Structures are given as structure tokens and as C-alpha cells.
Amino acid sequence: MERLTPKSARGEMDFKILERDYPLAVQRLLTLGRVSLREIGVDWNYSVLAAYRSGKGIEYCIASDEDFNSQLHGRMRNVGYNHIGVEVFNPSLIGRNGLYNDCAIRTLSEAVNYVSKLEILEGVEILPSGLREERVERGVGRGSHSDGDLSQYRAFAAELLRRAEGIIVGRVGEAFGDYIVARMKSGFFVAYNTNYGEAPYIVTDLSALEQDKQTVIRKGDAIRFRRDRRGDWAKKIFDEVG
């Protein structure tokens, strides 16, 4: 077993963020038990975090995007004086298949940050199924959009979640839906589709998002920017909610 320690200035910054957010992430995991970042819409982060020994730490595994079967396993725990030790159980994988030292720290830091913001609304379905006009119009389905669209979506989602005060996930029947809702510091709530099939919805009242999508659209309960390659819709949203 080895410990991950930062090897660069960027790695040191990411590690400080991890230490800052670690206590709240532990509390969230005591309630949630286990969180896969991909299941909550952060599909570029292959981390899975789980509570360890009733709040004594966090167990983790990180898969490589180059080889999803190669997983770094380990544990994070307080090693004294509020410093966090990131232990690796299979250190022979470090440096292979894209799992480099500071890359692993950055991935875990992001995962801990997002989990520290996560809130589950039990029994609430965010924007239940309805006609998805934009997906129908363009024939867009999971995995069929262009690399440019995907990179834009990931950049938007990452920035949205970074700025978010909280990340609220509607959960029905123990299964995550398509929508992630971010609570912004300005008081707005932004709901976006994890499949990037339609434009985000912006509301000031979270309960508006518990309606059917067509009802939300018909009643005008949400600000809604359609995806438009001719304009920077992500910038419009950040100007609105940031």
C-alpha cells in the first residue's frame, strides 16, 4: 500500500481542495452509502466513492477511460491534524492506462467536491418523461451526438457543478433519472439532461421542476435556452445564474 502525494503545483492545489471538502463528503456518504459519479451525470469522472467504517473514511475506486477494467482502489482517511491520506491498495497501476499520480488526485478531488454538494430528494421525480421535442427533431439519442457537442456539454456541466452550491438529484425507485439539478448561489435551480438531449431549465422555485416537462414549458415556469450552435447558450445560463 502507498499514499498518493502531489507531484506538481496543480496537484497540490487539487489536494487542498480534496482536504477542504472531505469532511462534508464523509457526511453525505454516511447517508448515501455509495456514489458513482457517472450515475449522477458526471460522466467524465470514473470515480466511485463509498462510506468506510461508519464515517472513518472513504473507500474509492477510479477506472481509467483508456481501460475501464483497470481500477485504482484505495481509501481516504484523516491521518491527523486534519490532513487527509489517500492510500492506494494496488499502486502498481499508477502511471498505467492514464492513471497517473496527479491525475488520480485531480479525479478524486473533483469527486469529493461533487459528493460534498450532493443532496438526494427521495420520492421526487425531476421533470418526468414527456415528449422530448429537440431529441425527436434532430434524431438525437444516447451516444449519437458529435464529439464537439459532447465536449461542449461536458465543459458546461463541469462549470455548472463547480459553481453550484448544491447538486440535487431526483431519485425514484432507487434509480437515477436523466436530470441533474444544480442549486446556484444566486438562488436559481438549473436542471439539465445528462444525455445532452435538450436544453437546461432554469427556475427559482424547485417545485416547478417536479411537474411534467410539457407543463413546465406550457406554463412558462422556467427559463429555457435551446441548444444553438450559433450562440453561446452556456454563457447565457452562467450570466443568468452565476
Brief descriptors of the model:
242 residues, 33% helix, 26% strand, alpha+beta
How would you sum up this structure, described in words?
- The protein is α+β, with helices and mostly antiparallel strands and 242 residues long.
- It has two domains: 2-116, no CATH class; 123-241, no CATH class.
- It is 33% helix and 26% strand.
- Strands 7, 8, 9, 10, 11, 12 and 13 form a seven-stranded mixed sheet that branches.
- It is globular.
Q: What secondary-structure arrangement, pairings included, does this model have?
A:
Blueprint: E1 2-3, H1 9-32, E2 34-36, E3 47-52, E4 57-63, E5 71-78, E6 84-88, H2 101-117, E7 118-122, H3 133-138, H4 147-163, E8 164-172, E9 175-176, E10 179-184, E11 189-193, E12 201-203, H5 213-219, E13 223-224, H6 233-241
Parallel strand pairs: 7-8
Antiparallel strand pairs: 1-6, 2-3, 3-4, 4-5, 5-6, 8-9, 8-10, 10-11, 11-12, 12-13
Helix pairs in contact: 1-2
How many helical stretches? 6
Number of domains: 2
Shape: globular
Give the radius of gyration.
19 Å
The proportion of residues in beta strands is: 25-35%
Quick one: how many beta strands? 13
H/E topology pattern: EHEEEEEHEHHEEEEEHEH
Average of the residue pLDDT scores = 83
Structural class: alpha+beta
Oligomer: single chain
Q: Kindly, what is the distance between the CA atoms of the first and last residues, rounded to a whole number of angstroms?
A: 42 Å
Main sheet characteristics = 7 strands, mixed
Low-confidence stretches: 131-144
- Helical content (DSSP H or I, runs of 4+): 25-40%
